[in-house]
Amino acid sequence: MDAIECIMTRRSIRKFMDVEIERTKLGIIFEAGAKAPSSGNIQNWKFFYVTQMDLKQKIADACVQQGWIATAPVIIVIASEPDKASQFYGVRGERLYSIQNCAAVAENMLLAAHAQGLSSCWISAFNEESINKTLNMGHRYRPQVVLPLGYPDETVPEPLKLRIENLVIFEDQRAGGNGGGGRIKDLDWAVWHYNVLGRTIDNTQDSAKKLSKAGRRFFDLMRERFNKKKNDEKENQNK
Ligand SMILES: Cc1cc2nc3c(=O)[nH]c(=O)nc-3n(C[C@H](O)[C@H](O)[C@H](O)COP(=O)(O)O)c2cc1C
How far is CA 123 from CA 42, 128, 207, in A? Predict the structure, then answer.
């Protein structure tokens, strides 16, 4: 599985098989966490590894009674060291970078788990003090993310995600003021990704069917331009 496929197919899983996780796989997950980017490379984090049932149960309770968490064979708790960040970056380091650094660790771990056939779910709904106490972390550490880990025992449908055409703001839109009146000024230029343009055209063509003849001609013209651009690109690549 390559990186893009891994990102695209990862899902939050909340039901796990009662199967032990191989140590080599765990090692790779910890390594992936350790390779995450961090502000000034300060790596102000620790990974708490939990397998004992009584501790897992306490963690699940601390996660607002999400009992399923205790059924994972392994739980990793990613904790930050905010003081280390504040020494270098003051309040911003303590309050923002510490969280962002651990978030980068969490995503790396989720992807490393998925790439190896394992699954997890990002958990941040928890009572910090209870987790801290359960794992005897001490005041230096703040739990940031809980990751229950195991082989998936459920398949879940792809969750709804916003489409990139509704998320990406292009430079030339901002120039119009008010964050852009029309979302995309020059659709043909702005949305160069085939899937996006393709489905945008399909959607708009559906609407166009309900429009006047002139409207339909406009969308036909757009599709022609898009196909021509794609062919030109192909020819350029073949040169
Ligand atoms: C900051 C954060 C906190 C989350 N907390 C919880 C949680 O407490 N319990 C839970 O079941 N899922 C939690 N999730 C997982 C989200 O529900 C999940 O990522 C979202 O529904 C999208 O599904 P996906 O991960 O399969 O793309 C959390 C995710 C994030 C990023």
Answer: 24, 12, 41
pLDDT in tens, 157-197: 999 998 877 787 776 555 555 544 445 555 555 655 666 66
Give the DSSP letter string of 66-89. -GGGGGSSEEEEEEE-HHHHHHHH
Give the Å distance between the CA of 123 and the centre of ligand 1.
6
CA–centroid distance, 222 to ligand 1, in Å, is 39
Closest CA to 29 of 147, 135, 144: 147
pTM above 0.85, yes or no: no
Q: Which atom of ligand 1 is nearest to the CA of 12?
A: 26
Task: Decide whether any atom of ligand 1 lies within 6 Å of the 124 Cβ.
Answer: yes
Q: In terms of CATH, what superfamily is 3-150?
A: NADH Oxidase (3.40.109.10)
Contact 195, 166 (CB under 8 A): no
The backbone torsions φ and ψ at residue 14, rounded to the nearest 5 degrees and listed phi first, read -125, 15
Whether the CB-CB separation of 150 and 15 falls below 8 Å is answered with no
Domain range summary for the chain, segments of one domain joined by +: 3-150, 164-238
Is the minimum distance from the CB of 68 to ligand 1 under 6 angstroms? no
Which residues, listed in sequence order, are joined to residue 74 by a DSSP beta bridge? 149
Collapsed DSSP state (helix, strand, coil) of residue 226: helix
123 touches ligand 1 (CB under 6 Å): yes
Residue 91: partners with Cβ closer than 8 Å, 6 or more residues away = none
